[in-house]
Amino acid sequence: MFERPLLHADADCFFASVALRARPELQARPVAVVNHVIIASANYPARARGVRSGTLVQEALYQCPELVVLEVPHAEVEEVADALFEVFHRHARAVEPGSMEEAFLDVAAPDQSAARQAAQAIRAEVAAQLGIAVSVGVGRTKLIAKLASRAAKPDGLHVIAADQEARLRAELPIGQVWGIGPKTAARLRDLDVHRLLDLDRIPKNQLQSICGTGMARRLGQIRAGTDDAQVRPVQHRESLSAETSTSGYGRADHTPAELAETCLERVLRRAEKAGLVGTGITLTMQPSDQGSPLRRKQSDLTAGTERSGWRSTVSRLLRSEPLPPLSGLRVTLTGLMPADQVPQTLF
């Protein structure tokens, strides 16, 4: 029997889904969105042809010559991510982000039926208001809820009941356990541990020596069904970022200063919406030759909301040293604090 089940909500192919909202004619074709020269997200038709996130565009095109490649719509992605979490917060009393497109939710559901209803409401609202699909899993703990959301994809809802949970805690392959990396999984397979049930014959001290104390403890809790079931909301964000990319900074309308201004406006608008102000700023610039990112930052600034002060700081950082040709730029607002906790004299 479920006791206050949790939800794990995860937007499907997030970057690609956002980019395809304005291109419905491409929905059935293999599509990938790229950040610089790396695949950031691929839709399901592209995945069916072997295209995966994190691969080079050239490799993806070799794998799938008919692939349609689009640039990541950074501004739109950030806006949709913010709106997605607004939906989550309307339906849940606690939201724990996993990334900009996924989160664990405590919807205060007393049972499995109520959790399913909350998941259906979230999915319907996201589809109607944002035009993207979000898959939702329902489970008793975070691990089980995340496994359920994986099973729900694409664009579905899946509930893992008590009998299925018991089977998973025995039969789940080690490589599919959320949080176990390839190296740890390989070490466990060297011990002939291929499923969770196989852990029962491994002495505790041997497991600790292979995986470390923390992971060994977690694996024991997973087998016992006492793993993490608490949704921990982020009470205070430390930073907010906005980024963009271009294939030609040499154009007059795509100078580093103008793109930095665009990113700055986005991140300040998001901070205002969240009721936050920053005390520092970092510019991260990606050279077009794919060299190491360049970072310039200013911290310990007076907390405030005036655009002119932030613009001056960004301009000064950009002018501090000559810049090479760039393919991308990110602005990060750091040292965030609630605006209502900043002494008025600071403004």
Automatic annotation (TrEMBL):
Residues 230-240 have a biased composition (Basic and acidic residues). Residues 282-291 have a biased composition (Polar residues). InterPro entries: DNA/RNA_pol_sf, Rev_trsase/Diguanyl_cyclase, UmuC. Pfam families: IMS (PF00817). Gene3D superfamilies: 3.30.70.270, 3.40.1170.60, 5' to 3' exonuclease, C-terminal subdomain. One of its GO terms (molecular function) is deoxycytidyl transferase activity. Residues 230-253, 282-308 are annotated as: Disordered. Coiled coil: none annotated. Residues 6-181 form the UmuC domain. One of its GO terms (biological process) is error-prone translesion synthesis. Poorly processive, error-prone DNA polymerase involved in untargeted mutagenesis. Copies undamaged DNA at stalled replication forks, which arise in vivo from mismatched or misaligned primer ends. These misaligned primers can be extended by PolIV. Exhibits no 3'-5' exonuclease (proofreading) activity. May be involved in translesional synthesis, in conjunction with the beta clamp from PolIII. Belongs to the DNA polymerase type-Y family. This is UmuC domain-containing protein. It comes from Kineosporia babensis. The lineage of its organism: Bacteria, Bacillati, Actinomycetota, Actinomycetes, Kineosporiales.
